[in-house]
Each structure stands twice: as C-alpha cells, then as structure tokens.
UniProtKB/TrEMBL annotation:
The keyword Repeat does not apply. InterPro entries: Asp_de-COase-like_dom_sf (IPR009010), MoPterin_dinucl-bd_dom (IPR006657), Mopterin_OxRdtase (IPR006656), Mopterin_OxRdtase_4Fe-4S_dom (IPR006963), Prok_Mopterin_Oxidored (IPR050612), YoaE_C (IPR037920). It comes from Mesorhizobium marinum. Residues 12-70 form the 4Fe-4S Mo/W bis-MGD-type domain. This is Molybdopterin-dependent oxidoreductase. Keywords: Iron, Iron-sulfur, Metal-binding. The lineage of its organism: Bacteria, Pseudomonadati, Pseudomonadota, Alphaproteobacteria, Hyphomicrobiales.
C-alpha cells in the first residue's frame, strides 16, 4: 500500500459488526463507512482471536450485495398468475393489511394450524431470525421442526459426547496434527484454515483433509484422503481397528472416560483396513498411514464438519469419526481433542423473544426439510392436521434450497396457498409469492450473534441507513402482531435493543451499550470442561461408544406429535460402523451425486452478485471423472443430463480427476433460472427424513448420467 493509500485508509470511518450469514465462523468485522448509507470494503477484525483478521472474499466485497441495483425496495402484490412475474407496488400498510386479512381468512376456514411461519438462517442474528417464533406461538400457528442443517451432525456428535461443545477451536494453532474431516473449510469457514496453517508454520503440524473430492481445502493438506460419499464410518472403524491392533489406543483414558472400550475393540476385530478399503475407495496404505499418524501424535485435533453428515447415515458417520478421538485419548492435551460446534455454550435466554411461554403443546409441528410433501398434503407430512394454506417466509429460499424441488414448486403454485415472502432480492421463492416485502440487510439494523464455530457473542449494531423502503424482520413481526390481535402478549412491543439488553442481562453479560463497547464477548469454557476432563455430558460422565440412538436426550429430537424417531432407526448400529442406509448406486443409477458448497456462494446467498457468479465459472457445472466421461462419450464443456426418480437436470460437464470414479459433484446452489430448464440441483435430492431425527441428506443421491 502506497503512502497516499495509507492516508486514505486512516481517514476512513470504521464500524464494527459481525457476519450474519449461515457459517460457523461468525466473523468479527471492520466495515468501511463511506457515508450514512454506503459502505466500502469489509475486513476481518485483527483483534478478534478467532477471526484474526481473515474473512472470506464474498463478505469482503459485501458492498456488491448491499448496494446491488436489483435489491427489493417496495412492497409488491402479485397482479398476474403465480410465477408470471407481474406485480404492482403497494404501501407497507396496504401490504401488511392484506397479509393479515389472508391469514385470518385461512384460520377461519381451517383453524390456526393452517398458517405456517417458515424461516431459517439467511441471518443468524437472534432477534431478526427468531422473533417469528413469537408470532407463531401467540397465534397457535403450526410449529416449525428445524432440521435441514444441523440435525444429522449434531445427533451423531451428541450421541458420543453428550454436549454440544468441544476443544477450543483456537487450539488448532497449538496442534501437531489437524484433521479436517468432511468440511471444505477454505470455501465454507476460512478461519479453520487460519489456525491450522498457523500450527503448520509454527509447529510443523501435519494437516490431514478427509473429503469426497480434491477441493480447495484438500489442496492445502499434507495428507489428503478422498473417499466415496457416505463411507466415513468405515474409515473411522478401520482407523480404530489399527489403533487397538498396534497398541496405539490409550487404555488408561478409555477405562476412565468411555463406556465400553473392550466391547468396541471386539466389535472392530474384523473392521480391517482391507474391509474399509473396499467400501471407501481408499487404499489400505492410506488408511494405515492415517491411523499411525493420529495414533502417534498426542496433540491431534479433529475438526469435524457438517458436509460428511449430510448422508442418510450421517449421524452414524459423525459418531464414528468422533469416537477416534476417544480411542487415542487426544482430549487430554492442549491442541488435541475434537470440535464440531460450540452451540451449547452460549446459553442466551430467548424465551421472551420467541414467546416460548405462549406455545401450546397441542399444536402440531411440521418438518421444514419436508416443505415439499407438506405443501402437497402428504399424510405423513401433515401429522393429522389441516393443509397449509398460508405461509410467512423470512430468511430462507425453499424453492431453491429445499429437497425435492419439483414437489416444492408444485406446492407453491397451488391456487389455494397464500404466501408472503420478506426478502432482500427476488429469489426463486419470492417469484412464487403473493406478497413480497423488502427486507433490510445486517448493517441496517441491530442484532446479536453467537459463533457456533468459535466462542464469541458478537454485536451487530446498525451502522448505515437502509434505502427508502426495506424494513426489518422485527418490524414485520410486530406490525402483523398488531393486525392479528396479539400485540399485547409478552415479548411484543419491545425494540431490538431491549431484547438484546434482556438476553445479555439474564446471562450476566451486561447490555447492548457495554457489548457495543467491547464488540464481542469470549465465553469459551475452561480447558477441563471443554476437553471433557471432568466427564462427558451424559449422566454417567462417559463417552458413549454404544449410543442410545432413540429415547435419550438429543439436541434435535422431534416433538412428540412427530413420533419417536424417523427413518430406519432400527438399523442404526450398536457400535461405530458403516451402515448402507445411503442411496447406494445401482445398475440404473450408477453414479453418486453430492451437492457441495461453492466458494463464492453461501447456500443461495451471493448468487445474485455478478462477481460471485463470475468466480464460479458463470454457469452450473458438474465435476465428472475423465474416465467416466470417456466411457460415456462426454467431453469437457458438454451439456450433460443427470437424473433419478425425482427428476432430471441439465448442466455442463467439467472433467476433474480429483474424485473417485462413479462420483459426480455439483458445486453451489445456483438459482433455478441459471439452469437450462429453470430447475435447480435440488430437483434430485430427497425429502425423506433420515434416521434417527431427520435432516436433509442433500449429498446422498444416486443418479444416472448421460449426454444431454
């Protein structure tokens, strides 16, 4: 940077915030404020010990998004047929009056459960994201079983550890071996790499990456293991077999901290590297080398991601991978142990924000991963209640991101369904709505965030004024409450800052003003707690090699009206294992498809910016092994069609040798209209609820492949 640039940088006004997007990093941000309503670049805060000055490129160029010419700025009411794209502008009062009128009419016809407020993680801010629950409970609208992101992974972790926390993720920098398992961290949580690379530079640590293709993270690895989708449990079992076989298991740790190590050893006798090689596609030598590395390295840190759990056997895979850390005993050492999420440490009381005391336990819940079957009235999705005839959608784009897209679209196109979408852009979901309301972005309102991938509670105060027109999620919920007759209930009538003050005060963490001064709060538990050296989270304090898959405590357990468990839960294994609950390739569907994240998108966010689209190649592509392509007569750049019983999609082939034969990868959630036929990749993903507690197995699809 030259002297002139240094002077310009010094003159910039800098505001402090937190990234609101659905990423475990929840980065602390420094924002260049160019005026009262305009920003420049965004930078990672160097003083935050986890962010450490590093953020992803897509958030760094957030000005492209917040000042995008296609932002929604006026309330719109549909004036033509659904999906036709004909709209008329309306005032905020008129639009909200119409929404309330339609909700009341739907309720009068079918009862309150016919209305389904539907939301997710377009913002991770607690006030703007979760306030919709307060309206739901006050009005006795259908409940929301939140399953799409975390259920498979969290269930597997919890079955072993009994609590949702782990080793301090900053300890990766103090490790001698960092195992990044099932997450493309360079693309999805860049700060993992910050600390892993620091360990390599300062300590000579080895970085191991386990994934299904040679992605950007694997290209930074000292040891890269490319396995077949859904086979992580087999790898973990073979590694533990070697640890027991070669005397690398820490028996003093196992006897003190685990439930049945002798039973596990006996169970793994025939889970040899040869057995796992046939399942995973890895060589025996690769499995042996990995097992020896983690067995000989006390300070091994297992960083377990979400991606490898998004299979129908995902909970089993997570539990098996986590079990390796218990066999080595690496939990005992700083820079060792395992980490997936710290979601259990924050303990902010959202009771008033979400209106939990207003909840009627008799009201049914609906599975948000199964919005397609729900809207199409499938008996196994409605749980005996009325059809859903009214939707309020915030912070999510189900017509693009939800499984079984054709069912979802067909449901949204129903003439008897009224849909209000509160959004920032005209998304695939907004296009099928009856009313579209313009929403603010994170720098235009107050909120509070907690970092599941680290240990910080961050404040995101309003830094700039929004354009004329957009309103906050909180505003919409409050205004609808007034029109629907529940504004007098507890939790309503409060400002965002008042809700934040209350949550912080109840936790003994000050208030909005003190957090604004501090910027963030570090609530990391002390070493012995984080490493479970005082015992794991189960009542007996033991790590469970023999999980109680059904009936015990779990973070994503379904409400009673949804049943005991989902899927073939009776087939879940007694000990860590490989179970073929996945969509195994067959003669008609010889390929396995994973819908992996793209570096420049985040779910369906950022796909509206030209800079992100350009960096992702400008069009949806399918990674195909060159030998598979040659066998099918496919050349690089060719139009190809992939499909299964749910439908078919056209993409362009990109020949790529960094995956196993029989595996194809579609990176990124491109908007539906970026695809040739106007249908996106989730046409091919299934909406069945995996065992034991549901989720979305979006990386678990058998497909056929042919030239288009």
């Amino acid at each position: 940077m030259n002297q002139h640039a240094d002077i310009q940088q010094a003159r910039l006004k800098i505001g402090h915030s937190a990234c609101p997007h659905d990423c475990p990093s929840t980065c602390a941000l420094d924002v260049e404020l160019l005026s009262d309503n305009r920003i420049g670049r965004i930078h990672g805060d160097r003083k935050n010990s986890y962010t450490a000055g590093v953020i992803c490129a897509k958030v760094a160029r957030y000005a492209d998004r917040i000042h995008h010419p296609d932002r929604l700025l006026k309330p719109l009411v549909r004036s033509g047929a659904k999906g036709e794209g004909a709209w008329k502008e309306a005032s905020w009062d008129a639009a909200l009056d119409l929404v309330a009128e339609k909700f009341v009419a739907a309720e009068e016809k079918y009862g309150s459960e016919t209305v389904w407020p539907y939301f997710y993680a377009g913002t991770m801010g607690l006030v703007q994201r979760d306030g919709i629950e307060r309206l739901r409970h006050a009005k006795k609208y259908s409940g929301f079983f939140s399953s799409i992101c975390t259920n498979l992974a969290w269930t597997g972790w919890y079955m072993g550890a009994g609590a949702l926390h782990g080793s301090d993720p900053r300890e990766m920098a103090k490790s001698d071996c960092v195992v990044i398992w099932g997450t493309n961290a360079v693309a999805t949580q860049v700060n993992v790499m910050t600390h892993a690379v620091k360990a390599r530079k300062e300590r000579g640590a080895k970085i191991v990456v386990i994934d299904i293709y040679d992605n950007a993270t694997m290209r930074q690895a000292d040891m890269g293991l490319i396995l077949k989708p859904g086979t992580d449990g087999a790898l973990a079992c073979a590694v533990m077999h070697v640890l027991f076989r070669d005397g690398l298991a820490d028996w003093s740790y196992l006897e003190r901290y685990t439930d049945d190590p002798h039973g596990l050893e006996a169970h793994l006798k025939d889970r040899t590297p040869e057995w796992a090689s046939a399942i995973t596609g890895l060589s025996v030598q690769e499995i042996e080398a990995f097992a020896e590395l983690v067995g000989m390295t006390e300070r091994t840190f297992f960083r377990l991601g979400y991606g490898f759990a998004r299979q129908r056997n995902g909970s089993v895979n997570m539990h098996a991978a986590l079990s390796v850390a218990a066999v080595t005993g690496c939990w005992q050492y700083e820079g060792g142990g395992a980490f997936h999420t710290n979601s259990g440490i924050f303990k902010l009381d959202k009771g008033l924000l979400e209106g939990t005391k207003l909840r009627d336990p008799a009201i049914r819940y609906l599975d948000h991963s199964r919005i397609g079957p729900v809207l199409m009235g499938h008996d196994d999705a409605l749980y005996g209640g009325p059809p859903v005839t009214a939707l309020l959608i915030q912070n999510t784009n189900p017509v693009n991101v939800a499984p079984e897209q054709r069912l979802v679209v067909k449901g949204f196109m129903r003439d008897d369904l009224f849909t209000c979408v509160h959004e920032q852009f005209m998304t695939d979901t907004a296009k099928l709505a009856d009313v579209v309301l313009p929403a603010t972005m994170f720098l235009e309102h107050d909120d509070i965030y907690r970092g599941g991938g680290n240990q910080h509670i961050n404040l995101g105060p309003k830094l700039i004024d929004p354009p004329e027109g957009p309103r906050t999620n909180h505003f919409v919920i409050e205004e609808l409450a007034k029109r629907l007759g529940v504004a007098d209930r507890p939790g309503f009538g409060m400002t965002e800052r008042e809700h934040i003050d209350l949550m912080l005060d109840r936790r003994g963490l000050g208030d909005f003003a003190s957090l604004k001064e501090a910027k963030w709060l570090d609530v990391q538990p002390e070493f012995e707690t984080a490493h479970f050296l005082k015992g794991f989270g189960h009542p007996d304090g033991k790590f469970r090699f023999k999980p109680h898959w059904v009936g015990g405590a779990a973070p994503g357990k379904p409400p009673r009206n949804m049943g005991v468990a989902f899927g073939p839960y009776d087939q879940l294994p007694e000990f860590p294992d490989h179970v073929d609950l996945i969509e195994v390739a067959d003669a008609e569907h010889p390929f396995r498809l994973a819908t992996s994240p793209a570096r420049s998108f985040l779910n369906s966010s950022f796909a509206e910016t030209q800079s992100s689209r350009t960096k992702e190649g400008g069009r949806p592509e399918l990674l195909v092994h060159p030998d598979d392509a040659a066998a099918l007569g496919i050349a690089s750049g060719d139009r190809v069609e992939i499909g299964n019983a749910r439908g078919e999609v056209v993409l362009h082939a990109k020949l790529f040798a960094g995956l196993n034969r029989g595996v194809v990868i579609a990176e990124g959630l491109w908007p539906n209209d970026a695809h040739e036929r106007g249908e996106g990749i989730n046409v091919l993903t299934g909406a069945d609820a995996p065992a034991p507690y549901g989720g979305a197995a979006v990386h678990d699809n058998k497909v056929w492949l042919r030239p288009a």
